[in-house]
Amino acid sequence: MKILITESNDFSPKALLALRNQFEVKTVNVQSKQELIAMISDFEVLFVRLGFSIDIEIIQKAKKLKYILTATTGLDHVDVIYFESIGGKVISLKNQTAFLGTIPSTAEHTWALLLSLIKKIPSSFHHVKNGEWDRNLFINSNLKEKKIGILGLGRVGNQVAKFARVFDMEVGFFDTVSIKSQFKKFETPEELCKWADIVSIHIPYTVENKNFVNKELLSHFKRHSVLINTSRGGIWDEKEVAILIENGVLTGVATDVLKNELDPDSIAVNPLVLLANQNYNVIITPHIAGATKESMAMTEEFIVEIFLKGLI
Question: Distance of CA 289 to CAs 8, 21, 99, 149, 228, Å?
Fold first, then answer.
C-alpha cells in the first residue's frame, strides 16, 4: 500500500516510522491543488492536514484511493459524502471523545484570543512599535465577574468554561445535548446570548449547524458584547457579524477560522479581514488553534494507530 502525506512539516516521527514499517510512504509539502492532482493517482492512502480541500475533483483523480486520514475533528475540508459513496473510508478524530479530552490546544488558543481582544494587546503593541506610548488609548476591562456564554459544552467548550472559572467569571452554556454540568444551563441559544458579555463558539460544523450564528441569533446579543470563534467559519454569518461590529453592538471579535479559508482569493475580501484592516477590534489567526507541536504529534500518532488497527 502506498501512502502520501501531503503536509509533512513537523509530522510526528513516531507516526511516520509506524507507517514506514509496513508501507511505502512519500512525504511532500504540496503547494497547490494542481500539484496534488498531478501526483495523487498512484496512492491508496492520503494523510492530509488543513492546507487543501479534498473535493470531488481531487478524489476522482485518485483512482486507487481507499483511505483519507486527517488528524482533525472537523471534516469540512474533505468531501466525505462523495468519498464514502464510492467506497472510501475517512479516518478522523470525530467522536473520539476520550482521546480528545487530553488535547488542550484549541481551548488554550481560545483563551489567548479572548485575553488579547479584551486587553487590546495587538493594537497596543502596534502602537508601541510605532514609537508611541499612550496608555489612555488602551484602557480595557477585567474578566472577573463577566458573563461568558459557551455555545456548545463539548470537549473544548468545557475546557474553556473551566478556564473562565479560574478567572472568577460567571459561566453559562447552551447545548443541544442534555448535559449535567456545574455551569448555568440555558434552554435556548437566544437566552444565552442575551445574558452573556462574551460568547465563545464551540459547536461542530455540520449541515444542520451551517450559519448557526445567523442574523436572528445575533440580534439577541448584548450591546458591547464580544464574540469568539475557534470552531469553523461556516458556523456563523460573517457578513452579519461584520455589521454588528460596525454598528458597535459587538465591541470585539476574535476568530481562528473564516468561511472559505482554503480559497486564497477570498481572504483579502473577507468582511472580517476588511474590518481588521480598518483597525476595528478584530483579531484573526489562520486556523492555528490545534497547531501546537505536542497536539499535532499526539493526534497524528492516534490516527495512525486507528488506521493500523483497522487493517488487522
Answer: 18, 31, 17, 19, 12
